[in-house]
Design goal:
14 helices, Topoisomerase I, Chain A, domain 3, 4 strands, mainly alpha, 342 residues, 6% strand, single chain, globular
């Protein structure tokens, strides 16, 4: 509903279109159940009855399963944005004293605390516990795929469709292991020197790129979760090296991607490439490991190994790549102390 988006933007004018769509969609589900359906004169006054709204959110069970803390939090934050937008928006803070805003804020804090408690106890959220594997198992899987499939592609001039999909999986896993970003990999655009210089000249570098310059290759990210943060945001540039560069060059040579680096994750019929990325990883990890590993779980596995066996330098590098700091990454994903030997 456009009216919901308009109200939210009154409070959160810096929200991206993607963020706005997520939160407005969440609130639209609440409105569909609790509000009127008159597009011309929608009535959102029910948001003041926070007990009723909270009860509705608590009883949501998509696919017959209880909602995760993170999902509930998104619903409560959408309610907060509506309260703010309906009461002066960004130009005032009077909504901070409204009982409904306080109630939704308290639920957000509660969701955060519940999540941290689960992390502190070592528990994994939802189905993650059933799908966790060791880093060694992942490494052995990668070795088997390389020796049986990928190695043979190096001498080929063309590639079959089934080989493209497997090579994509191998490349994604290799990139994640060296550069543990979030879901930005699915949105990467492949550009050369001419396109890069044009973007810089026009100051239009707002996307995420793989930039090939001679024998050097860089991953440049402008659009990621904390990109607007004053402390850890801004453009992120990582040079692609080692095995990741080798497999990336092989991918570019055989697949010859145009524009999108991973066209299989960006079909015109489905723009939700982040979701397709996780589905792609889950499909192949289920085939080779009998486990459905999402991008989030993959990071937890890799990061957990750094906590147990890594160094301060490795931890700092991961935090830098994620656009965060070490303490935030630990608290968010593990909530454990880090005591490296060197």
């Amino acid at each position: 509903m456009e009216e919901i988006k308009k109200i939210m933007l009154n409070a959160k004018p810096k929200w991206t279109e993607k963020t706005l769509n997520i939160y407005s969609s969440n609130f639209n589900k609440i409105h569909f159940k609790l509000g009127n359906q008159l597009e011309d004169e929608p009535d959102f006054s029910y948001i003041e009855d926070y007990e009723k709204v909270i009860d509705f959110i608590n009883n949501l069970a998509p696919y017959g399963k209880p909602m995760k803390d993170s999902s509930k939090k998104n619903y409560y934050q959408s309610c907060m944005a509506m309260v703010e937008g309906m009461n002066g928006g960004k130009f005032t803070d009077k909504w901070e004293k409204l009982p409904e805003w306080i109630a939704y804020k308290d639920k957000v804090v509660e969701c955060n605390n519940d999540y941290k408690e689960k992390q502190a106890s070592g528990s994994l959220v939802g189905s993650q516990a059933d799908n966790v594997v060791s880093v060694l198992e992942i490494e052995n899987m990668m070795k088997d795929i390389y020796n049986s499939k990928i190695k043979n592609l190096k001498t080929k001039k063309t590639i079959e469709p089934n080989e493209i999909e497997l090579l994509q999986f191998y490349l994604l896993m290799t990139l994640y292991k060296q550069y543990p970003v979030r879901n930005e990999l699915s949105s990467l655009l492949l550009i050369g020197k001419r396109e890069f210089n044009k973007l810089k000249k026009e100051k239009n570098d707002t996307e995420n790129y793989i930039y090939v310059l001679g024998n050097k290759t860089f991953m440049i990210r402008n659009k990621y979760k904390t990109s607007t943060s004053s402390q850890s945001g801004g453009e992120k540039i990582d040079e692609i090296t080692g095995q990741a560069k080798t497999i990336l060059n092989l991918w570019i040579r055989l697949v010859k991607p145009q524009d999108k680096l991973f066209p299989l994750l960006n079909p015109h019929t489905n723009p939700n490439s982040n979701n397709l990325l996780t589905l792609h990883l889950q499909k192949h990890t289920e085939k080779y490991l009998d486990k459905k590993i999402s991008t989030t779980l993959l990071f937890k596995i890799l990061f957990g190994d750094v906590i147990e066996n890594g160094t301060i330098k490795k931890l700092n590098n991961i935090a830098k790549v994620r656009g965060s700091n070490p303490s935030n990454v630990i608290n968010t994903y593990l909530n454990k102390e880090f005591s490296p030997t060197k």
